[in-house]
Amino acid sequence: MGERQDEVLLGKGVKRWPVERAEALLASPLPWGPPTYALGIGYVDDPKLGDQAQDFMGLAMCVDGAYNRHGNMGQAWKWANPILRQVETRTSYEGLSTQDLLDVVFLSCRGERFSDGLIRQRESLLRAIIQEVVRRICSDAPPVFIVQKSDTTENR
């Protein structure tokens, strides 16, 4: 039996994972998350300074199915937290599929809606994950990105 292929399910309407966007995000020092706002305090970060929030969120939303694979937001974070700890301690990425890594990125992006400042708080970990994904794409055995069929079907 051969080794299982590293596959990633792309989001609906996404034809390819934008490695160029990932490389541009990694090359820029601008923050990946939007300015953090604390209720009753105001902005923690200067909202006039530039960021890459839209580009990061666009990249994160290129994958699909994290909730189907890992459950609702609470269950998904129970699944994702050990991966984040592994990234934080710079433990090997062996055993983690590219889909798993990108699911953590997706969940972090979605988590920003409920926890303002989450992306900026975890940016160093998210950068490490995206670096690993780009490294894998540029390797001799890149992951396979699966394009989903459209929800609409033609009648013939």
Automatic annotation (TrEMBL):
Identification of the protein by name: Uncharacterized protein
Organism: Dictyobacter formicarum
